[in-house]
Amino acid sequence: MSSFRYWGVEIWFVSMVTIVAIIIGLFTGYTGEILFVMTASYLAWHLRQIYRLKRWLTTSRDLYPPDSEGIWSDIFHSIYLLQKRNRKSKKRLTRILSEFRSSTAALPDGAIVLGEMTEIIWFNKSAENLIGLNVRKDIGQRITNLIRNPRFVSYLEHGDYTLPVEVTSPIDDDIKLSLRLTEYNKNQRLLMVRNITRLYQLEKIRQDFVANVSHELRTPLTVVNGYVEIFSDSKEQLPTFFHRPVDQMGQQVLRMRSLVDDLLTLSKLESGDEPVREVSVSPSMILKRIVEEAKALSEGKHKITFDSDNDAIIKGNEKELHSAFSNLIFNAVRYTPKGGQIKVTWHQLDDGFRMAVEDNGPGIDAVHLPRLTERFYRIDDGRDRSVGGTGLGLAIVKHILERHGTRLQITSEVGRGSCFYCDFKAVK
Ligand code: ADP
Known about the structure:
Bound molecules: adenosine-5'-diphosphate
Oligomer: single chain
Order of helices and strands: HHHEEHHHHEEEHHEHEEHEEHHEE
Number of strands: 12
Distance between the termini: 80 Å
Structural class: alpha+beta
Radius of gyration: 40 Å
CATH superfamily of the largest domain: Histidine kinase-like ATPase, C-terminal domain
Helix content: 40-55%
């Protein structure tokens, strides 16, 4: 029977009983009393049905409803259908949840769900193993109470999660982890934890290899250089045939020495073993000195200017900053043809300072820009080698600037020139 029919029958039944009660009342003279008794019985019946409904919903384990009549039979049946549907979807959800749990448990990467206040809501088995989380103790704890690494704390606060952050596991110094946050919903974040110990070890082996080879090359190079210098100094005693080879040997030894020195510098910077050792430095003074050196290097072939609107002091390593700035300025001198202009500036910004080196040299095609700071990346191998660089200069600049909390930025247009710049925060 459809719902409407139940209600129709109920209304028909109530109307009929009321009419019969009124007729009997008219005959007996007790209309009010009979109507009262009838209404009270009807109400009592409804109360009983409500009570049965409550008992069925709260105490009974039976899915099937108790027998009933009239509209109550319809109500019981509708609730029964609703419960059946709910049980079905609950079963489906439980199955999905248990599948999700087993698959995330099998994940080699740790997954941690963080709430609005970075409190831990849920994590998988791998997160337990990699970070040492404990279901009983750590649910609801802030993640920064468990991973206290300052790099991770500032990554979390910074809000820029495009790149992961690398930290040492809080339970084992030998385990290196890569942590990456992803935001979802409104204020929830998923923290993915990857074990990168093997990658880290390989990278360390590579760094050590480069550092050791460069170091070992230093001694033989010094010896060769010594002999080449002796030959150069007494060139007039050598047959003319040897003059050109001796000059070329001198140039190549010098080039190899620069290469070895740059490789060693890069290894030191990459290893991060040495802290930045921040002291107060005046970038405008450093730049002024380098511009004078650049003028000497240019030998009057370029118009080199320096403009600074402040003598601000920042925190940093003077030697490293000198090396980074001079790499950029000397590159401008080396790559800008005769007659070109080079502008070096140190200007105040709203919340810091900008160092920029601008030239009107050959410029760099946009396809090269993302790779320019890679080791040995060159645009035109022949031309760049003849200019005499090692191909490591911008890689060194990148590392130094990163150690100083800033980033090398490059804008360039072929045929118009290039601008290499970076922004520093003001010291508070
Ligand atoms: P190199 O020692 O070869 O100069 P760098 O790492 O300093 O190596 O620079 C990488 C490459 O970037 C250079 O080989 C050169 O092609 C290009 N480059 C750097 N500075 C400039 C510039 N001011 N103008 C044009 N090209 C440049």
